[in-house]
Amino acid sequence: MPGTTVARTLHDAGLAAWFGGTLMGAVGLNGASGAIADPLDRVHVTTVGWARWAPLQVVAIAAHLTGGALLRRRADGAAPARGLVGTRRVVTGVALAAMGWQAALGAKVAASPRTPAETGVKPLPETAEDLAPVLVQLRVTQWLLPAATGALLALDAHRQERATS
Asked: What does each C-alpha distance from 77 to 74, 89, 96, 108, 146 come to in angstroms?
């Protein structure tokens, strides 16, 4: 059914982009920021990179949630899908909460004066005292996101496996 194909594409492509973007940011962008010669530029460059990704991440999340809502409306109430709904909702809620937390922390970092850091999310002893714990919390959220979205991918794979067996 074409409507199901569109809904599944929105759901799956949105989740893939959400997962892939957050994983690339946590590994690639945050890690690469340590290679910037001037420790005063590391936080700024990382913040700018995450800010450039943010609008696309919002689109990815919206696509995923929209596709999921459309699929729920079309579901025939099959038992294999029904058993995972609660777990998926909890994990999706964790991911959305982590996104909100990350956005709030990112805004604090973006508004702060330049400060030296080991990477964009790893403070040095000379990092501004009020910013160091924010960077640590930001690093936690930036790893929580790919963990939660990766769990959603695994739950979807499990659901598909149960539906075809």
From this structure: 9, 16, 26, 44, 29
pLDDT in tens, 54-99: 999 999 999 999 999 998 876 655 555 566 888 999 999 999 999 9
Q: Give the DSSP letter string of 89-143.
A: HHHHHHHHHHHHHHHHHHHHHHHSPP--EEETTEE-TTS-TTTHHHHHHHHHHHH
Q: How far apart are CA 151 and CA 87, in angstroms?
A: 10
Concatenate the DSSP letters of all residues of 76-101 into one string: ---HHHHTTHHHHHHHHHHHHHHHHH
Q: Whole-angstrom Cα distance, residue 62 to residue 128?
A: 36
Q: Work out the angle between the directed axes of helices 2-24 and 39-74 (0-180°, nearest 10).
A: 160
Chain position carrying tokens 């936080």: 43
Domain positions in the chain:
2-164
Kindly report the pTM of this predicted structure: 0.90
Residues 93 and 163: their CA atoms lie apart, in Å, by: 24
Rounding to the nearest 10 degrees, give the CA dihedral for residues 133, 136, 140, 141.
Answer: 60
